[in-house]
Structures are given as C-alpha cells and as structure tokens.
Amino acid sequence: MKTIITVFRKELKDSLRDRRTVITMVILPLLMFPVLIGLTSRFVTSYEEQAQEKTLTIGLSEGVGAEGFSAGLEDADNLSVITGLSLDAATEMVIADSLDAYLLFHEEFARQVEELGQGEVTIYSKQTEERAIEAGRIFDLLDEYEVELRELRFTGLGIDPDAYHVISISTENLATGKEQLAEMVGGILPYMFILFCFLGCMYPAIDLAAGEKERGTLETLLTSPVIRTRILIGKFGVVVLTGISSATISLIGLYLGVRYVSAIPAAFIDMIMTILEPGSIVLLLTLLLPLTIFFASLQLTISFFAKSYKEAQSMIGPLYPVIIVPAFLGMMPGMKLTAATALVPILNVSLATKSIIAGQSDPGIMVLVYISLIVYASIGLFFCGKTFGRESAIFR
Predict the structure, then answer these.
(1) Which of 33, 42, 209, 293 could be disulfide-bonded to 253 (CB atoms 3.0-4.6 Å)?
(2) For the whole prediction, is pTM greater than 0.85?
C-alpha cells in the first residue's frame, strides 16, 4: 500500500505541473457555469428588453375593421402603423424587413362581427423564435381590440359583459421545485458533469502513459523494484481523482454561478440550490465515480498503446461522439430512466441524474444503474491491466 501511495503522489505531482491538466480539471469547470449562467441571463434579459422597447412597424389593410383597430393604437407606445396597404406590397415589405407584420382584415370582417360571428384577421410575418416576443405584442393588441368589440356587442344586446365569463379558472402547480428544475435544466447539467469527468481524465491519462513513453521515463519506472500492478493502480488513481475532481469543481462553479449572478430570478436560485443539498451531491458523485473509472480505464488503455502524446490525442479524439451522443440523448423530451436505458452506459448516468434532480429516482432502477456502471468499470479496468501488462504495447 505504501508503494501505491508513493507512485500516486509522484504521478499526481507530475500531473499538476501540466497546465492543460490544471485548466481542464480546475479552471474550466470552475468558471464554466458562472460564465454560462451570467452570459445567458444577461443576454436573455437584454433581448427581452430590446424586443419590448423596439418600435414595431405594422401594416394594416383597408376596411372598417382595420380602421377601428387603427383608432385604438393612437396612444400605443413604440408602435408605427401604416394603413391602406395592399397584400402584395405588404408581403414584399415584410420579406424585406420594412414591416414587422401585416394585418389583413378580411372584407367580410365588419359583417361577420355585426352578425355575431367571428371577424377574420390574417397576420403576415416572419415567424421565427427570435421574433416571438414581437409576435406576442401584436397578439396582445388584437386581444385588446377583441375585448373592445365584445363589450360593444354585449352592450348592444343588453347583456352584462361579465356574463361572458361563465367559468373562473385558477391553477395550482403541484410540481415540486425539483421537478420543475429537472424539466428546465435536467438535461444540460448531467451533460456538463459527464463532459467534465471525461475531460478531467483525458490529459492526465495521456501524460502518465503516452507522455512518459515519449519522455523515456516509463521504462525507468518499470525497472524499479515495484510490482507493475501497483504502478498501474497509482497512475489509475491519479486519473480518476482528476476526473471526479473536475466534476466536483463544476458543482462549486454551479453554486457560485447561481449565488453571484444578480440577473437570475430568486425562484430559480431556490430550485438550483435543491440540487446542492448534501444528499443530492452524494448521489451524483456516487454515479459519476464508476463512470469516471470507466473513462479513466478507457483512456489509459488507449494511451498505453499509443506511441506518443500526439498519437494518444488522435486516438482518444474519436471517443468524443461516443461520449456526447448518449449524453445528448438524455436531454431529449420523453426519454425516461427504465430497466432498458439503465443498462446503456453514459445515457443511464444522464437519465439517473435527471431523476435525482427531480427527486423521483426509483430505488430498483437506480440499483440497476449502479450495477451496470460497476460492470463497465470492471471491464475497463480488466483491459487496462491487460494492456499495461503487455510488453508489446508498453514498448511499442
């Protein structure tokens, strides 16, 4: 055991001297969430303010309905109205971004309203996500016009306008804060944790295997009177430590991000903080530990086989899609943690993490996730040990 600790300390010291390891293990995960949360919050807030304050240019068709609607817009802020436009001219202006929207009040609009029917209006606009707030402002204006026409209709019929509201509906959201949080960010958080585990393992794994082969220090280490298995355990322990540390530091970054970014709503901060409860953190780390062992064994095996640092990087590069695709699938709506998905590596961690965040983890399914992760980690360790024991691979 003393020998393993000695090798571990030596390899850890060597790894911490590597700037790339420090950046991927500490700096990147620590800053990622604060920077990401801060930039996203500021961008969204700024975009919403600009969209609300932007002066909308609306084109209106001819007719009684359009005239009545236009009359109600005289006191509207941040709004420019162009009346009497033909459909052809208006659509060209919308396409050229000279108009934000064109409202075509159909010829029968006035008659339809007078006969207690529904007056038809068609909106011509560029319906993109970027313009969703602008579209919402236009719909709000039409809703106000509809309320005005409805009150006139009811008054003409001698009916109290309040009689229109037959049912009063109120809602009570019974979803817990954790469930709401899992729906909003339950996919991206495990994606980031998995990615940090992988990146945290990568550079130490390359440096402690292919890097040492390239520097010629691995042969010196193997000639020492130490059992080869103990050397492997020492190196392996460092790689696992850097991987799990990267994920842990990302949790600290998440905490700093939600605590010190002022643009985040207080309700959202409260929901995020539920993830950082001791019980949730322990469950997350116990999920990430066997996954990190699997990553470490996989990357060390490749690195031991590679001839140089550069070759190890090129051989590990194709693993990115293998890691990213299952983690990305965990973000898809409708993807649930079941007995089948619990057996799929990486995807099971992503879905299990979502379940933990939502506070809805099934003990039986979670046990299946842990068993599958331990099996994959054991297989990875087996092949890593076999590769390290082959002279043809080590001295390739």
Answers:
(1) 33
(2) no
